[in-house]
Amino acid sequence: MNMDGSMRPRLSSLGDFQFGAVATETIEDALLHLAQQNEQAVQAAGGRMGSFRETRIVEFIFLLSEQWCLEKSVSYQAVEILERFMVKQAENICRQATIQLRGNEKTESQNWRALKEQLFNKFILRLVSCVQLASKLSFHYKIISNITVLNFLQALGYLYTKEELLESELDVLKSLNFQINLPTPLAYVEMLLEVLGYNGCLVPATQLHATCLTLLDLVYLLHEPIYESLLRASIENSTPSQLQGEKFISVKEDFMLLAVGIIAASAFIQNHECWSQVVEHLQSITGIASESIAEFSYAILTHSVGANTPGRQQPVPPHLAARALKAAASSNT
Question: Which CATH code for domain 51-176?
Fold first, then answer.
């Protein structure tokens, strides 16, 4: 039910999602484009990226998206928009702090604190703006109106005007140079499932899709512990150094790696006898080592079902943290 007591419309059924309806050539082009985007994102990863995929923030966005009957893709998009916006804001505050060291410390310190307070006080507004912007990217579904947003904020005790709401959206857009239509891990998962279907995967893509969505939610909600366990496995050390953690940021931003891990884990849950075949297909499609795929799926399964997970064939190769994604291979074997 909605906050006003009215019934919410049903979300589109997962069964409505269709695979095998797109021409092979189109899939090949789209997969290559995603691979190129992913490689650029991995190479550009660094600094504070990933700092705002915190469990409580992700959970808030997921619950809000469910309340507003938005597609799963919208919730993932909102998380990524907010993450990038907040990283930009944090970097701006740090730049201001650096400038203060050279200027009037008392005056500049007050300005710096004011920036931090403004960021904190407007966080919920920014979060909701990111969800609203993400809904506008999903033009084939539904867009969240300003009235709906204002009513929600008022129910939480935040009184904003329509003008302030529009200004907030514009602030997010300007901060990100209007580049908000970014690929999410779900785009990679669904593209790879499409290719697996054409390659003759024994586990049906539609069957894997629902499980993949559940596990992707889980990875978002348990982002830090899952990647921490992956980092420890990759360096074979239970106490990673700060430098090792910083170098591992590129792995956290590798959506292709995340997608193959999600699909492999889903395949193990659905039909563990076909797991090895699925991993081989994923390696052939993406160029990611089967050991890396196995290790990621192991980390996901350990934090989800926690039992009878696929055997760890061997440690993740040392180059995992610095791996540059290879160009995607042809979608047909």
Answer: 1.10.472
Q: Domain coordinates of the chain in residue numbers?
A: 51-176, 185-305
Nearest to 294 by CA among 309, 273, 308: 309
pLDDT by position in tens, the chain (length 333) = 344 433 344 344 444 556 656 677 888 888 999 999 999 988 887 766 767 888 999 999 999 999 999 989 999 999 999 999 998 888 877 776 666 555 555 555 566 667 677 778 899 999 999 999 999 887 655 778 899 999 999 999 999 999 999 999 999 999 999 999 888 999 999 999 999 887 777 778 888 999 999 999 999 999 999 998 888 888 776 777 777 777 788 889 999 999 999 999 999 998 888 888 999 999 999 999 999 999 999 999 998 876 555 554 443 343 333 332 332 223 333
User: What length does the chain have?
Assistant: 333
Output the pTM of the full model.
0.80
